[in-house]
Amino acid sequence: MRLTGLVVVLAGWGLAMSGLFVSSSNVARALFACAGIAVSGFGILGILNKYYLARALWKK
Amino acid sequence: MKNRTKGCKALLALWAMTGFLGLALPLMAADAPAVTLTDKDLTGISAPKTDDIAAKGDPGAEMTGTVADVAVADAKKGLTLADMANQIGQNKVAINFVWTLICGFLVMFMQYGFAAVETGLIRAKNANHTIMMNFMVYGLGLFAYWVCGFAIQMGGVAPVANLGGLYPLNSEYTATLFGKSWGLFGTKGYFLSGSTYDVGVMVMFLFQMVFMDTTTTIVTGTCAERWKFAAFCASTIPLAAITYPLFGNWAWGCGWLSALGTNFGLGHGYCDFAGSGVVHSVGGITALAVGMQLGPRIGKFNRDGSPNVIPGHDLTMVLLGCFVLAFGWFGFNPGSTLGASGNGALRIGSIAVNTMIAGMTGSFAALLYMWIRYGKPDASMAGNGLLAGLVAITAPSGFVNPLASAIIGWIAGILVCLAVEFFDRVPKVDDPVGAISVHGVNGLWGVISVGLFADGRSNYGGSWNGVAGGVKGLFYGDAGQLVAQLIGVATLVGVIFALSFIFNWIIDVVVGHRVSAKVEMAGLDIPEMGALAYPDFQLKASDYGTPSQSAAPASVK
Lengths: 60, 557
Description:
The structure holds 2 protein chains of 2 kinds. Chain A has one domain. Chain A is built from 2 helices and no strands. Chain A has helices at 2-22, 26-54. By secondary structure, chain B is mostly helical. Chain B has a single domain, classed as Ammonium transporter fold (Orthogonal Bundle), CATH 1.10.3430. Chain B has helices at 2-31, 39-43, 50-56, 81-120, 127-154, 199-222, 229-252, 260-264, 276-294, 315-332, 348-374, 379-394, 402-425, 435-453, 479-510, 517-522, 525-529, and strands at 172-177, 180-186, 463-464, 467-468.
């Protein structure tokens, strides 16, 4: 789960960077960057944090 | 009436004469033959007699700082034009050295502010532990940064004109990918040895070191009241030695982010004047990575997930700490010109005012938000609003005007309140001091705001990151700059988070991040540090774990 989360976080950065090579339009590059940030954010809060929340002390 | 007419005529005559002189004098001056100065002309300049100064002193400052004080290369030759030119150059660099060092000292003093804010916001039973983390982060961070952090970050930054060139720092490791050169890390300056034993390099080291230390101290706030001291020590080292320096190199050390302008035509590349991203976001994002792994304090959340209020033990210390931080920020932002003379560095006044204004509007906005939402003007959030405004203006401070600073600070003040509520209620990451919201979230906002509000009026030697002209954001016609800033945000959220997470995951496996529940309930001062911060006071046991009376997050209350 944690490894998956890390891969998703890094994939978000990869997506943002790929925009630089896919298009020379600023709008397209900005969309790629925003999508990448969203994917990384999902990896952090949606996967990694969920893993730790499931084991949180206050749930026991 | 006659007198008035005469007066008018006289005024008109005067005006005409002034106009004539204004037009004619420059033309006359242009026709005047050029005067050639030689070394001989300098021999006639007389110096005050030392006997006079010895006998009378110089209370009017008329005999101190004269031609006698200009260093002469060859005493037999006497004063030459070359001596004068060298003295002018040295004066410029001396002004810049002194400015940068004093600003560095101010930033170092911010450690006091962070220690006061963090210690004030936690319970008395953990005060020794928390202030010791803030104290030791200075030494641990400095050690790691001296060994390799500085070299990784700044080893290839040369030339830096304001500090005399810094030519020993001339080696950046680069990779060539897709036909572009990507600066990855510096390779000179380990242990400040070899040719980096240089006066300019030392100034740069001191200034950059205190910035790095700000980053490392952000994490201790989020992780307070449950972090093993040994794990804290272990966690600080990779942050100061690798994670921070890497992003610092990419943004400030001639790395690939700063080259997004020259390589991909994205404005002036990633621009972060004083470190909303480099310093504050790196600290806030690392705090998030460690805070998630640590988990919330016992009693912070109920079984149904609702948050409880865990108030700090000294609100006066918190607000005094905020004042100290606001004072130190005048070193942080204006000092990032690395000088006060040459290359547009006179903009320091504008940068200082921008810093002031954003802090003020941030504090106002947070105060008003809390007052309207919860019915009371919350003191700790007014302080966090001030810090949020300061964090957000850190990146754009050198590129924007005062009105934009006010807007950036105002948005930051609202954003910090929303972010504190969000982290308490949705991902349930316990952050006793709100560091993730203040530094992480508002650091990212500061980075983005450069891409929106930079007005193109700054001119630091004619170019920035190798791209000619002033930095312009989207609202001033350069959408590419916003894209460069978004790539910076993606790198912070993607790469820096991942690095911090991995390092701290390893530490969790080897050392273990969290103290036992028994230690946490007792307070960390005795079990972890061996002494109470307040031994003469009777500490009242806290009874958390019951539903809160209000839905307001703990950091807010």
